[in-house]
Every structure is written in C-alpha cells, then in structure tokens.
Design goal:
alpha+beta; 5-stranded mixed beta sheet
Length: about 200
C-alpha cells in the first residue's frame, strides 16, 4: 500500500540533513571550550586549605567542587576530570589522608583541611613515590588518563590495610575505572607498591 502524504515522502537522507542543520549549532554551542574560571561573587566563602603542604587562602564559589578548584584555581591538573559524577575515580585525591572523589567534594568543605594530589607525592629530592614507581615498573598504564586517580586510590588502599590479597585489592580499587583495561598490570603494581610501602619506603 502506498502512502503519498507529505509526511512520508521525507527520505532518510533528507531527514539527516535537516536534523544536522538544526542540531549542529546547538551542539556546537553546548560543547564550546570552557573559558577561564569565573571570578567568585562578592561575599564568596573564604577557604583556607593546605594543598600538597602549601597553605592557600581562596575565595571560592560556594558550589565549586574540590576538583574544579584544584584544576582551575590552583592549576593542579594532574587530578583528572573523568565522569564528573563520582563513578570513575579519575579525580581521586586525599583529604586529611582519606581518599575522596574530588568531583563530589565541595571545596568549601575542605576549609582547614589538608589535601594531597598526585603532584604532592614525590619526595623533596624529586624521587617518585614507590607506588608511582611500581606503576611504571609494571607498565600499569596505557593512555594514562586514569593513572593519577589509580595511584592515589592504591596508596589509600594500602594504608587502609586493604591490600592483603589480590581479591582485596580488586575490591578496594573497584571504584577506579581504566578504559584501556590495564587491570592485570594495575593489580601487579598495587601488590608490589604495597610491599615497598610496608618495607618502610615512602609509607
């Protein structure tokens, strides 16, 4: 049965062209590269925080995440923005020694606290943290985007006493996703890093 109504004469090619011409400008506007961080409004909360051993007195937007403040205000871009929903672990940092997803942590909540990022792991003499070295030694990175979060989570995993067995390591590292699938090497690195940390080197 043929239907010659105007609504059904639109073929697939015409539909795609029409859709692209309408959606294109909207998508382009939505994906525009972010500009510099906006200045916080007058009366913005003051946040005094120690990051990697350095004190900072910041005026921040009340809703700003710790991740955005680290990356945009302090230029500490080693902490990665992945899902921005607390599901991938790429943004893992330590606050008062405990691992947190910095994308879900309000910067204002860190007032008076100590934050450590991947940039704060190396020793004063420039030597890498033993967990960083273990990741290199075991080739536990491919694209490397998740690696800072993996390393911060791995150190916390050891300090929490959750690196006793391979199953424990898998369980307590499960919040950190690797899109390259380097999990076998990551497990080996965490196991080796745990051994080195327990040996008193960079605990």
């Amino acid at each position: 049965m043929s239907d010659s109504s105007p609504a059904t004469t639109l073929d697939r090619r015409a539909f795609m062209v029409t859709t692209a011409s309408v959606a294109g400008p909207a998508l382009t506007a939505g994906c525009a590269a972010p500009g510099p961080a906006a200045a916080p409004p007058a009366g913005a909360p003051r946040c005094e925080v120690v990051v990697n051993g350095r004190p900072h007195a910041l005026r921040i937007e009340a809703r700003a995440s710790l991740l955005d403040v680290l990356r945009e205000d302090l230029q500490l871009t080693g902490t990665k923005k992945g899902c921005d929903h607390g599901q991938c672990g790429a943004c893992t940092v330590h606050v008062d020694g405990r691992r947190v997803a910095s994308c879900l942590t309000l910067a204002a909540k860190c007032d008076g606290r100590e934050v450590r990022t991947i940039e704060g792991l190396e020793r004063a003499d420039g030597a890498l943290h033993v967990m960083q070295q273990a990741f290199i030694d075991h080739d536990a990175l491919q694209c490397g985007y998740c690696t800072p979060g993996q390393i911060m989570a791995a150190i916390a995993c050891v300090r929490e006493g959750h690196a006793q067995t391979d199953d424990q390591i898998r369980e307590y590292m499960s919040g950190n996703l690797c899109r390259c699938g380097a999990y076998v090497a990551i497990l080996e690195a965490v196991r080796d890093g745990a051994r080195r940390m327990k040996g008193g080197d960079h605990a």
